[in-house]
Amino acid sequence: MEEEKKILQQIENIKKEDPFLDPDHASDNAAVDTDVREQVGHDTVEAQVKDLTKRLQEIKIAMINMEKGNYGTCERCGASIPQTRLELVPEARFCIECERKLRK
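The chain above was modelled as a monomer; its predicted structure follows.
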């Protein structure tokens, strides 16, 4: 739950950095290079928020699995996920071997 709070705070902080939120953005007649920088900044913010939102969803799934008593069990093969992996990636849903197969 601490990680969930941390990610929500990160999302909030990142969104504040979005150049498109600047009230002058829509009305200024900035040079093309400024527009490009603002677009890149906006795209970066959106990508970071998307990644954090995905991680947040994974954490919520892990919390549901805890409630069901399935936490720490690979969703693909049913094997126990090693404690060291769960310490590094608490939202891990798959053992390392299954994760590798899924990423191929």
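The first helix runs from residue 2 to 16.
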